[in-house]
Inverse folding.
């Protein structure tokens, strides 16, 4: 399954092949399906069992644009400018499918009471699939959820991700011939002024805030004053409140740009992910599974492939990763770590974002990563795409699947005390605040299939 999804990469909200492949296998193994979740044709929930506890396993399967690549050590696209699995989501969801099928068999053999669910979550790369699903309430009755992500080492991730708002601003002006530009009102001028204002804002935001943008429409020809132009922003911060505050200021900048250019501005929120609310209780339980499954095993061929891929990187990429992992006793020459570590970011959080964060503010979430590529290989690169379609990626995926299945099994069989502790930690960290989706109700998920 992982290989087939890797060979047919699909972008966010268009993952028809991957979603149907997983649904068919799960339905064939006796799972009931809830489809079109949150109004998204590629989102689904597969369930087996009855009663409490209800344990969820989160899966993803969308690819990234422009990262088409063979399983090779030179940059070679399969499809020119085509998509590719540079974040390993061909592995991520498939490991969850394997885990819940294994769990179902054990539940039947041992007559275990409880419910297992696999969540087929689209569009993580645009950080909104799980938010639309959360808005539909499908995570609300979970006792906990488990997740993982492909990476360059086996680790329990005790760090927060950044909250994020994805928003596109649309300016509307008045067109004119460039020779009589005084008659026009340039929407592109407004976009450029807005971006300048946002760049000046960077000095006056909380440390750790990130402001990224790209111009999505800059007009059609130099001799036509653009009456339409748009710019797309990602705003990141340590938590939902900080991002919302930055968003309010960016809106004022957009309105100021419109005022200066005598244009009109509107905006559309595309994603509103929360920061990851870490649950150490569940992470510790996942970490303990290493004693049952043992270390990962890689062959000489795997190591040779990893070494050749790393040689294509800027040396600083590997050196930075090695310095970080050295803190946890991993030797600097180790390309494919096999043992589990407990990783905590020195700053307590990382700059990246994930819509897993939304689920973590609804129910306790545990998460690990496993070695699916060599130390130094960044996600969202052609080298990552090559790794995640290779035996290295598949071995890391199976390793993750074992962690997910064994953790869920313990929670189902003898997990009452752990679940109570995880819930207590969750309540303390959320301080009783209810989850409110950051994507407004009137914004519907894009339907691409």
């Amino acid at each position: 399954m992982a290989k087939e999804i890797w060979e047919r990469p699909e972008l966010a909200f268009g993952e028809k092949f991957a979603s149907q492949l997983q649904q068919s296998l799960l339905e064939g193994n006796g799972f009931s399906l809830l489809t079109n979740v949150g109004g998204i044709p590629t989102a689904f929930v597969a369930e087996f069992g009855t009663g409490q506890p209800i344990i969820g396993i989160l899966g993803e399967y969308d690819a990234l644009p422009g990262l088409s690549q063979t399983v090779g050590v030179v940059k070679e696209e399969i499809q020119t400018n085509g998509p590719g699995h540079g974040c390993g989501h061909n592995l991520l969801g498939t490991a969850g499918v394997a885990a819940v099928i294994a769990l179902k068999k054990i539940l039947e053999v041992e007559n275990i009471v409880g419910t297992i669910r696999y969540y087929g979550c689209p569009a993580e790369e645009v950080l909104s699939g799980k938010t639309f699903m959360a808005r539909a309430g499908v995570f609300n009755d979970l006792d906990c959820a488990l997740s993982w992500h492909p990476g360059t080492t086996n680790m329990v991730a005790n760090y927060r991700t950044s909250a994020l708002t994805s928003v596109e601003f649309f300016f509307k002006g008045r067109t004119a011939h460039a020779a009589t530009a005084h008659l026009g009102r340039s929407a592109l001028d407004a976009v450029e002024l807005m971006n300048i204002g946002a760049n000046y804002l960077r000095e006056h935001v909380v440390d750790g805030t990130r402001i990224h943008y790209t111009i999505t429409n800059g007009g059609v020809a130099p001799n036509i004053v653009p009456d339409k132009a748009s710019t797309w922003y990602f705003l990141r911060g340590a938590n939902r409140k900080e991002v919302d505050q930055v968003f309010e200021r960016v809106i004022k900048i957009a309105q100021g740009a419109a005022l200066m250019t005598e244009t009109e501005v509107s905006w559309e929120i595309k994603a509103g992910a929360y920061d990851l609310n870490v649950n150490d209780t569940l992470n510790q339980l996942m970490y303990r599974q290493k004693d049952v499954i043992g270390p990962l095993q890689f062959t000489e061929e795997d190591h040779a492939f990893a070494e050749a891929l790393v040689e294509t990187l800027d040396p600083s990429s590997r050196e930075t990763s090695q310095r970080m992992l050295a803190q946890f006793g991993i030797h600097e020459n180790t390309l494919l770590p096999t043992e589990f570590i407990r990783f905590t970011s020195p700053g307590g959080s990382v700059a990246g974002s994930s819509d897993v964060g939304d689920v973590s503010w609804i129910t306790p979430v545990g998460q690990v990563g496993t070695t699916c590529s060599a130390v130094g290989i960044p996600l969202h690169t052609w080298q990552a795409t090559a790794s995640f379609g290779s035996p290295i990626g598949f071995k890391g995926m199976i390793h993750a699947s074992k962690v997910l299945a064994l953790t869920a099994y313990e929670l189902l069989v003898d997990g009452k005390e752990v679940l109570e502790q995880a819930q207590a930690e969750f309540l303390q960290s959320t301080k009783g605040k209810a989850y409110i989706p950051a994507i407004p109700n009137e914004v519907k998920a894009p339907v691409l299939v």
Summary: The chain has two domains: 2-161+275-430, 163-273. DSSP finds 14 helices and twelve strands in the chain. The radius of gyration is 23 Å.
